[in-house]
Structures are given as structure tokens and as C-alpha cells.
Amino acid sequence: MSENKERLLVKGNEAIAIGAIDGGVECYFAYPITPQSDIPEYLSRELVRLGGEFVQAESEIASINMVLGAAACGKRAMTSSSSPGISLKQEGISYIAGSELPAVIINITRGGPGLGGIQPSQGDYFQSTRGGGHGDYRTMVLAPSTCQECYDLTIWAFDLAFKYRNPVLILGDAILGQMKEPITRWKEREINPNEGAEWRLTGKKGRKQRILKSLYLDEGAMEQHNLRLYKKYKSMETDLKWEEFMVQDADVIAVAFGSIGRIVKSTARKLRGQGLKVGVFRPITLFPFPYERIRELARSGKKFITIENNTGQMVEDVKLALCGICDCGFFANMPGKVSTPEDFIQPIKDQFN
Fold first, then answer.
1. Cβ contact 112:121 at 8 Å
2. Cis peptide upstream of residue 84 (ω within 30 degrees of 0)
3. Is 1 helix (H, G, I), strand (E, B) or coil?
4. DSSP class per residue in 174-239
5. Beta strands in the chain (DSSP E)
6. Domains of the chain
7. Alpha-carbon distance 175 to 112, whole Å?
8. Measured between alpha carbons, how far is 158 from 7 in angstroms, rounded to an integer?
């Protein structure tokens, strides 16, 4: 990546909005909900000033279907919401995936189930990584842990969405969305004006008719469609991303994502100061998940503990990665609690017994 050295002190939500602009967003459709409302607030001002389209829709359902329409025209389209709002968007996300259209979806999660509260939570991991709506589909899922990553991953999300013709979801949380940090913006870059030229709807204009759909009624058509989607989801593994923190000599590796992954790194530093060799593995792509790399680390004799701000979701993927090589401890940091590095000291220490 190239940087233009412009430094800004912004919230994580604002970093996402700035990343969307620098990533070439043309259309943004959303409905306000805490704790992500800084995103539409920023884009309502800046995207319009730059000539883009901003619509506060009448509902979450309306906004995701507006994204579908804009994406079908080859536009860089985006929406954002928080947990219950994302639930309302699930049917539209399934249609976007089924129609093989690019879109960027932001989820700044809050506590649940139900309306829950605006406190931090990572309770939407299953919803995000397993599709969330009806049918066998997947969204590519990226989990930032800093404001800089909020910015960087939003730009990358637009590129991935067009690369795979698939929705890409950024999974943040209330901690990340509301904290402030400096970010460095990238240099201005050109967006290929021909992206999606072979499938986007622009009016027939004498060419062969194009049909974008998710309905397949002919004999064998849906089977072939799902087979093609399955192969595409497997191909996304070429874009796996993760962070390893002091894992090479570690006896115990804590696996955590997003803001919890960041906090656990501070815990690891404290335990290193006590003579305990602790490392952190932080998945950045949650789907696809870096199974093979975790498996490699397990084969070298390391122990594992998964730490999440939920009652146990990513731990299932970690156990699948370990595949019987070793067991994995788990510590549930309950949704609604803002964690400190000290919260995780004893659970990690227990893995040395």
C-alpha cells in the first residue's frame, strides 16, 4: 500500500467512512443505529460533497435492496448497521450473494440477543461467517482491531467485492467504532472504470441481453449455480490474512479477533514479563478462516486458548483447525463488558498447568 502521509485523528467509525471514500464508494444506503451512526453522519456530508449518492432509507430492509440495485449497475455500493439492523438486512444479503454482486457491508456490533444494548460484543461471529441468511452462501469477513485497519480493510473490501463478485463484510464492534486513533491515508489511486464491464447493467444498447438473478428453476441449474459459488468461496483462501504476535517461541497461543485480539496482545506482554511464553494469533479474515496456519502451529507442540467477547463462537473454528492435534481452552468475556488486559491473565495462566 502507498501512503500520502496525511495523518488524521478519528474514531474507528470515521476511519471506515474515510476508507470507503478512498476506496471509491459511489453509493451509500443505510439507516441509523447506535453505535455505528458516525458512519452515515460522515458520509452524508463528505460523500455528497464529492458527488456520490447518499440515501438514508426508510428501513434497513430498504437500504440493503438499494445496495443490490446499485451493485447490479456496477457501482461501488455500501451499507452499514449494527447487529439487529444487520439481521434485518439478511434476506437482501442472500440475494446479493446469490446474484453474484459486489457490495461492502459494515457491522459495528452491539450486545444481544434481541435489542440488547450498545455495549461491546462479538456475538455476531456466527451470523457473519456462516452467511447469516437463507441458503448456502458466504460473505467474506474482515475483522479490524485498530482504526488504521478500519481504514485499510474498508478499501481492500471494495477490491475484494469486485474480485469475487460477492458481498464483503467488515466486522467491528462498539469499542473499535468509538475509540479514537491516528490513521494515515493512502495516496489517491485510480479505480478501474471498466470493472464489472462484462456483467453490469447499463442498458442494452444493442448488446446481448444481461440477466442478473438468484432464481434458478430449470432442471440442474440451481445445482450448478451452487457448485460455482462453492468453488468461488474456496478460492477466497488466496486472500487469507492474519497477525502473529510472539508465536514462534510461545508455549501457549491465545486466539482472538478484533478489539479483543488487540487487548490480549497487552496481556501477552504482561505475561512475558512474568516469564511465561505467550503469543497471540489474530485472524483478520474470519471467512475464510486460516485453519491451516493454526494447524501448523499446533503440530509444533503449542497449546491454545480462544478468547472472545461472546459465549463461544470462533472457538468452534479454532477446534476445527486443531483437528484433534490438541485441545483448545476457552474464555468467555461476556458481551456488555469493556475488557482490560488483566481480565485474561488467569485464563491464559491456567493453560500452563
1. yes
2. no
3. coil
4. HHHHH-EEEEEEEPP----TTTTTTT--S--TTS------S---STTHHHHHHHHHHHHHHHGGGG
5. 3-11, 27-30, 53-56, 77-81, 103-109, 140-142, 167-173, 180-186, 242-245, 252-255, 278-283, 285-287, 303-308, 328-332
6. 3-238 (3.40.50.970), 242-352 (3.40.50.920)
7. 15
8. 22
Residue 129, classified by CB atoms within 10 Å of its CB into exposed (0-12), middle (13-18) or buried (19+), is buried
Separation between Cα atoms, residue 255 and residue 305, nearest integer Å: 6
Percent of the chain with pLDDT over 90: 93
CB-CB contact of 304 with 253 (8 Å): yes
Nearest to 288 by CA among 231, 320, 241: 241
Q: What is the pLDDT of residues 78-114, one digit of tens each?
A: 999 999 999 999 999 999 999 999 999 999 999 999 9
315 vs 332: CA distance, rounded Å: 10
The answer, yes or no, to whether residue 188 has pLDDT greater than 90, is no
Instruction: Reply yes or no on whether the pLDDT at 4 is more than 80.
Output: no
Sheet holding 103-109, edge to edge: 53-56, 27-30, 77-81, 103-109, 167-173, 140-142, 285-287
The confidence band for 302, taking pLDDT boundaries of 50, 70 and 90, is: very high
Place of cell 485453519: 291
On the question of pLDDT at 75 being above 70, the answer is yes
Burial 83-109 (b: 16+ CB within 10 A, else e): bbbbbbbbebbbbbbbbbbbbbbbbbb
Quick one: which of 288, 243, 20, 292 has its CA closest to 140? 288
Across 142-179, b (16+ Cβ under 10 Å) vs e yields bbbbbbbbbbbbbbbbbbbbbbbbbbbbbbbbbbbbbb
Q: Within 10 A of 201 (CB to CB), how many other CB atoms are there?
A: 14
* Of 81, 25, 15, 33, nearest in space to 51 by CA: 25
Helix and strand element counts for the chain (H, E): 13, 14
Cell numbers 503469543 correspond to 279
Q: What is d(CA 67, CA 27) in angstroms, rounded to the nearest whole number?
A: 8
Residues linked to residue 253 through DSSP beta bridges, in sequence order: 279, 304
Asked whether 142 and 125 are in contact (CB, 8 A), the reply is no
